[in-house]
Amino acid sequence: MAEELKCRICGANFSKEHTHCPNCLSGRHEECDGTLEPIAVWVKQDDTWDIILRCRLCGEIVTEAVCQDDNPIKIMSIASKPIASPPFPIEKLNEMTDLMGGNGTIDGYYYDKRK
Ligand SMILES: [Zn+2]
Ligand SMILES: [Zn+2]
Q: Distance from the CA of 5 to the center of ligand 2, in angstroms?
């Protein structure tokens, strides 16, 4: 029988081969026994996803690969956090939209050339 761990955050049971809880994505920091709190999702260049976790006790930041069993809704909620509450003034969004509009114009330019 596979050894099971109990998540100290949400109480879910999960097998010991997981380095973090598949339900709430929290983990345990080996070095200081602190709770690792998921703070961000990192989509790497090869399209694999990593979770970025920060230890509540010592503040160290670690990354862990997303497992197949990980709760996709929880991953999405972490990934969308900065969009819901951006770490910069909301007025900056206009500048970003302008930049995207600029790309659109370049696409239109190539489209015209093909005619
Ligand atoms: Zn959990
Ligand atoms: Zn720690």
A: 19
Query: pLDDT for 63-88, tens place per residue?
Result: 999 998 999 999 999 988 877 777 66
The single residue listed with the structure tokens 């190539």 is 110
- Kindly report whether the global pTM for this prediction surpasses the value 0.70: no
| CA 14 to ligand 1 centroid distance, Å | 9
Owner of token pair 């862990």: 64
Ligand nearest to the CA of 21: 1
C-alpha distance across the termini of the chain, in Å: 66
In the reported structure, the alpha carbon of residue 27 is separated from the centroid of ligand 1 by a whole-number distance in angstroms of 8
- Over residues 49-75, mean pLDDT: 94
What Å distances lie between residue 47 and 41, 50, 77, 101, CA to CA?
12, 10, 18, 26
Total residues belonging to the chain: 115
Whole-number Å distance, alpha carbon 115 to ligand 1 midpoint, is 56
